Every structure is written in structure tokens, then in C-alpha cells.
């Protein structure tokens, strides 16, 4: 049975874990019918000429997707590589591509944002995709972030006590 995973890549440790999980699942499929769609969304601003980091972000996205794609080619795992440049909100673009490619599951990394970051750029991408995607969503956390948060909480407790 053919199964399609869409792996959302953003260069984070959590998205790398999502990719590794999908690769392992595809390797277990002896028939090689499991397909991976590697997706990296590169957000464009309305004033592209003012975005000095856009070109760098795009180059990093392309290099990252190409690296994973070469691994999949060597392993003979069917896949598609997509680096999408868009003015759309990445959250909406992920939903759109999941529907367009009729994926069976979206794999995405989770970044725990501070309250201030949530106010500035909105809710977490993974939260949005989980709530609005028509297919199942598997979320991967970067546990190193959790360790750091735990250590900071412990320091705060010791200072106040």
C-alpha cells in the first residue's frame, strides 16, 4: 500500500528528527511504495528588495533539501523535493501542499515559543498545522530546548527559595 509522508523542513533539530523518522519508516517498506515529500517554505516579504537575508535563507533551504534528497536517492526511497518561495503564511502553505499532494501524514518539528514571540509572529506553526490539517500530523520536539527550559526553571526556584 502506498503511503506518503510530507516532512516539513526548516533547519531545526526537530525537523531533522522528523526527517529521520520518515526515512526509517520508508526503509522498513520493502516494496518501496512509501514516498517522502520534503518541503521547505521560504517566506518572502512584501518588500523583497529590503529583505537582506532572503537570499541566504533560500540558499540554506535548497542546500538542506538537496542533502536529504541525495540520502534518499542513495537509499532508493521515492521522494519529491520542494523549496517553496511564497508571500503566504508558512502555516497556510503547509496545509495547501498537504492537500495538493494528498499526503497521508504531515511530519513537523515543534519550537516552543516564548510568550513575546507568540505575540510578535503568532501561534506556533506546528500548533496551527495540527489544528487545521485534514490528515494526521506527527510533531517532533527538540528536547535540548526542554532541557534548557528545565535548567532555567530550576535556577529560578533556587533563587527564590
Structure write-up:
This protein has 161 residues and is α/β, with parallel strands linked by helices. The protein has one domain: HUPs (Rossmann fold), CATH 3.40.50. The protein is 50% helix and 22% strand. The chain contains six helices and five strands. Strands 3-2-1-4-5 form a five-stranded parallel beta sheet, sandwiched between helices. Helix 1 links the parallel strand 1 and strand 2. Helix 3 packs parallel to helix 5. The longest helix has 21 residues. The chain starts with a strand and ends with a helix. The model has no long low-confidence stretch (mean pLDDT 86). InterPro entries: Rossmann-like_a/b/a_fold, UspA. This is UspA domain-containing protein.
Quick summary:
By secondary structure, the protein is of the alpha/beta class. It has one domain (3-160): HUPs (Rossmann fold, 3-Layer(aba) Sandwich).
What labels would you give this structure?
161 residues; alpha/beta; Rossmann fold; 5-stranded parallel sheet; 6 helices; 50% helix; UspA; Rossmann-like_a/b/a_fold; UspA domain-containing protein
Amino acid at each position: 500500500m502506498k503511503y506518503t509522508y510530507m516532512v516539513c523542513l526548516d533547519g531545526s533539530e526537530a525537523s531533522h528528527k522528523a526527517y529521520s523518522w520518515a526515512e526509517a519508516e520508508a526503509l522498513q517498506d520493502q516494496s518501496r511504495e512509501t514516498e517522502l515529500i520534503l518541503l521547505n517554505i521560504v517566506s518572502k516579504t512584501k518588500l523583497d528588495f529590503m529583505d537582506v537575508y532572503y537570499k541566504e535563507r533560500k540558499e540554506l533551504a535548497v542546500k538542506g533539501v538537496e542533502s536529504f534528497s541525495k540520502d534518499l536517492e542513495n537509499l532508493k526511497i521515492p521522494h519529491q523535493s520542494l523549496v517553496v518561495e511564497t508571500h503566504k503564511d508558512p502555516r497556510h502553505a503547509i496545509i495547501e501542499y498537504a492537500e495538493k499532494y494528498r499526503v497521508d501524514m504531515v511530519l513537523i518539528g515543534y519550537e516552543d515559543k516564548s510568550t513575546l514571540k507568540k505575540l510578535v509572529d503568532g501561534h506556533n506553526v506546528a500548533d496551527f498545522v495540527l489544528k487545521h490539517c485534514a490528515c494526521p500530523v506527527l510533531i517532533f520536539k527538540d528536547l535540548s530546548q526542554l532541557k534548557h527550559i528545565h535548567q532555567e526553571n530550576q535556577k529560578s526556584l533556587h533563587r527564590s527559595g
